[in-house]
Amino acid sequence: xxxxxxxxxxxxxxxxxxxxxxxxxxxxxxxxxxxxxxxxxxxxxxxxxxxxxxxxxxxxxxxxxxxxxxxxxxxxxxxxxxxxxxxxxxxxxxxxxxxxxxxxxxxxxxxxxxxxxxxxxxxxxxxxxxxxxxxxxxxxxxxxxxxxxxxxxxxxxxxxxxxxxxxx
Length: 168
Known about the structure:
The chain is mostly helical. Helix content is about 70%, strand content about 0%. The longest helix is centred in the middle third of the chain and has 28 residues, at about 65-90. The protein is flat. It starts with 8 loop residues before the first helix and ends in a 10-residue tail after the last helix. The mean pLDDT is about 85.
C-alpha cells in the first residue's frame, strides 16, 4: 500500500465549499429559488463538518471507509449542483441564467472534483481502474468551454431572440 497524495477529507471540504456557495447563490437570487434553499444548504454544509468529526473520531484507522464516505458527500454536493441547474432550466425556464450557472459554477466544480478524485485514486491508494488520470493541462480546454458558454449565455440574456429562427 502506497502513501495517500492527500487525506480524503479534502473531498469533504470541497463538498462543504460547494454547499456554502450554493447557499450564497440561492440567497443572492432569492427570486429564482424557494425560500428554504439557502437553509437546506447550510444544514448540508454543517453535516459535512459533522462528517469530518465522525471521520477523525471513529474512522481514522479505516482509510478506505473514510475515502468512500467523503466521496459520497462530494457526490451529494455535485448532484445538488446538477439539480439546481436542472431546476433553473425546467422549472424557471431561464435558459440564459442556466447557461451562466453552468459555465461559471457547474462545469468548473465538476471538473475540479473529477481532477482531485483522479489524483487521489491514481495515487494507487484506492484501486479504481476505470478512472483515467486527468492531466492538469486539460484545465485549459475546460476553461475555454466555460468562457464560450458564458459568452453565449450573456448574449442570450441580453438578446433573448438571438438564437431563434425568424419566421416569415
